[in-house]
Amino acid sequence: MPNPRERREQLERLMISERGVLSEASKGRTFSEEQDEVRTCFQRDVDRISYSKSFRRLKHKTQVFLQPEGDHYRTRLTHTLEVTRIARTISRALELNEDLTEAIGLGHDLGHTPFGHAGERALSDIYPGGFRHYEQSLRVVDRLEKSGAGLNLCFETRMGIRNHTVGSPDDTAEATVVRLADRIAYINHDVDDAIRAGILTADDIPQEVREHIGERHSTRIDAIIKDIIKNSPLGEISMSDEMAKAVDVFHDFLNERVYRNPKAKGEEAKVSKILGGIWEFYIKNPDELPEDYRRIANTEGVERAVCDYVSGMTDDYAIYKFTSIHIPAAWQVK
User: Whole-angstrom Cα distance, residue 115 to residue 61?
Assistant: First the structure.
């Protein structure tokens, strides 16, 4: 009698279209493992990512607004969850592999720096050759998790994580869906947070966006998702030309009014000083790195090790480390 995994693989042959990736057709893991009796290979990837330390740290990493006052602003974790939900909805409608989609969605930002894209820019200026969070996300699952053993994810999950920003001609349909979902999520939740912060009002949103996408957060997401599903019955998965144009207008508006807004980004100059100060200390004192990163320093160089350590920090931990390194402790007089 087939076990639960085998029954699920049989169902996938009926439920997943030719564009999707069957679990049983995966190109496999870097290091071969015995199949699980209950879960497909992509379901196991979902679990490995969900239980990882780097996934837990996302809840304390900035999405857009640094150290916001309030509990309802997005973090890198809530962004990840929103991306994954949007991507699964599209994948289900297009008869793709939802488990692979979920694994890519949950893992796509594991390599993001503290302080959002401000942190990414700061680290890119410091690290030789530049820093790209999507490359670091792959490094996290391949090299850094589990004290250097990595998560040993499936090839399709790994490449979806690696290419979630720039894309690749070899992408699976599931990876393409996550890349689209990433953009749908962040342009919508970033404007929502900007309105909450008082940087924008709903009336500031361009008329073209309101007419073609919608007036409200949920309406806009629903409209873009349905446009992709309607426009992608076969072949390339994409938005319609009209929707893609409206989304570009939306993104350009956010770039001008939010991402470069002095009020929203006024604290970002401090990010370079914080990360730069931590970087300089550990470059000069590699023996002070945690044990896992000292091993990386011995095999791949100090700069690589410090980059891995700094990029993995949460916002609060980066501030704590900078303070402990560079700010004199208060004297206690007895």
Answer: 6
Q: ∠ at Cα 298 (294, 304), nearest 5°? A: 75
Angle between helices 155-162 and 173-196 (to 10 degrees): 40
What is 45-60 written as a DSSP string? HHHHHHTSHHHHHGGG
Q: Is the pLDDT of residue 195 over 90?
A: no
Q: 211 pLDDT exceeds 70?
A: yes
Q: How far is residue 268's CA from residue 113's CA, in Å, rounded to a whole number?
A: 13
Q: Are 250 and 284 in contact (CB under 8 A)?
A: no
* Own/partner long-range contacts of 215-223 (Cβ < 8 Å, ≥24 apart): 217/188, 217/189, 217/191, 217/192, 220/188, 221/86, 221/184, 221/185, 221/188
Domain with CATH 1.10.3210.10 in the chain: 40-265
Considering the segment(s) 40-265 as one domain, its CATH architecture is Orthogonal Bundle (1.10)
Backbone region of residue 40 per phi and psi (left: phi > 0; alpha: psi in -120 to 50; beta: other values): beta
Q: Which two tokens stand for residue 274?
A: 């914080």
At 192, the amino acid letter reads D
Which has the closest alpha carbon to 315: 122, 183, 161, 140? Answer: 122
Q: Enumerate residues 6+ apart whose C-beta is below 8 A from 196.
A: 70, 72, 73
Q: Positive or negative CA dihedral for 167, 83, 173, 229? A: negative
Q: With cut-offs at 50, 70 and 90, classify the pLDDT of residue 329.
A: low
**Banded pLDDT at 194 (limits 50, 70, 90):** confident
Q: How far is CA 311 from CA 100, 140, 318, in A?
A: 26, 10, 9
* Cα gap 247→184, rounded to integer Å: 8
61: closest CA among 249, 275, 206?
Answer: 275
